[in-house]
Specification:
By secondary structure, the protein is α/β, with parallel strands linked by helices. 31% of the residues lie in helices and 18% in strands. The strands form 2 sheets. An 8-stranded parallel β-sheet has the order 4-1-5-10-9-6-7-8, sandwiched between helices. Strands 2-3 form a two-stranded antiparallel sheet. Bound molecules: manganese (II) ion.
């Protein structure tokens, strides 16, 4: 059953102020039963942070991002963007929030199985999954669910390369999702943007990523060569999956994260690259990882995460509208 997320009123229709009601993403309808999912965009939370190696708290990411998304609480019914002078997400597009994936503390494999099954179910229902993490380890579980695709291109925004092989035997931690992706037969090209941090990935990991064919752009590349240069480097592909580790952004606007690193991307740089991806091919999934509300400063990191999700769902539906109208 889908629950329309509207507050009580004696009037004909409720005002739905951003501070009223139990938050779903954008105050969109709540659809807790994936068997009954009928939507274009399905938001789901993965409150998992057992992989976090520095500052924990990403398990609170899903609800932090949902709460911050209420600044845009009318957007799921369509919104006007004055910057582009365009309407986004108007009817018939439908966004729903499916609630959270069950996480069992200490049992990461079971938690990952739940995650993979949830994403698989959303894909079967024809919706595009938008997962709110959770630490970046979850992306390994998410990408496993895409095995019906061939040559899926993964675009990663991140401070860190996340290409470590198995440090101290840890194969499915948040330092390895891009390495694990590269090992999946259905994953094709990789692009890694905003990279700069001294993370778990070492020199050899960078060599391995390059040998795989990954396109690596540092934050310095984006800043000095420009967004147009970054866009020109997006690999050709029919289908794209975007994974956005919020530490790809600069800590001045996103310090609510486990491993912040100076000299990050700005929101407008990241958003413009996501927009270009949406028009270059079809975005078939998106996640935002590593938002840690306990470490945040007045919810600003959650706000940017919510905004980037809204941008991605707006751009991908607009790209489909333009294809349909051609
Ligand atoms: Mn990461």
């Amino acid at each position: 059953m889908e629950i329309i997320n509207k507050p009580f009123t004696v009037e004909e229709s409720p005002m739905c102020n951003p501070f009223v009601g139990i938050p779903t993403f954008l105050m969109a309808p709540y659809c807790p039963n994936l068997d009954e999912l009928v939507a274009d965009i399905a938001v789901i939370g993965m409150p998992y942070d057992m992989g976090t190696s520095v500052k924990t708290g990403a398990r609170f990411g899903p609800n932090g991002v949902r709460a911050a998304s209420r600044y845009n609480c009318y957007a799921h019914e369509g919104w006007y963007d004055p910057i582009r002078d365009e309407m986004f997400l108007g009817p018939p597009w439908k966004v729903v929030d499916c609630g959270d994936i069950d996480v069992l503390h200490t049992l990461y494999e079971q938690s990952f199985r739940n995650c993979e099954a949830a994403i698989r179910k959303i894909l079967e229902k024809g919706a595009v999954p938008f997962t709110i993490g959770g630490d970046h380890a979850m992306t390994t579980a998410i990408l496993r669910a895409y095995d019906s695709y061939e040559d899926l291109c993964v675009i990663q925004f991140d401070a860190h390369l996340d290409f470590s092989k198995a440090p101290h035997g840890i194969t499915e931690g948040p330092g390895s999702p891009m390495r694990r992706a590269s090992e999946m037969p259905h994953i094709g090209k990789l692009m890694q943007i905003g990279i700069r941090g001294i993370g778990s990935s070492q020199y050899q990991d960078f060599q391995d990523a390059r040998a795989y064919g990954s396109t690596i752009l540092t934050s310095h590349d984006v800043r000095t060569k420009g967004v147009a240069y970054a866009i020109s480097k997006i690999p050709d592909a029919a289908h794209y999956y975007i994974t956005f580790d919020i530490d790809g952004l600069d800590p001045s606007i996103a310090n609510g994260t486990g491993s912040p690193v100076p000299y990050g991307l700005l929101y407008e740089e990241a958003s413009a690259i996501i927009e270009a991806v949406a028009y270059k091919g079809s975005i078939v999934g998106f996640d935002v990882a590593e938002v840690s509300p306990p470490n945040d400063n007045h919810d600003i990191t959650s706000m940017y995460a919510a905004q980037l999700m809204l941008d991605a769902m707006s751009f991908l539906t607009k790209a489909r509208e333009k294809q349909i109208n051609q």
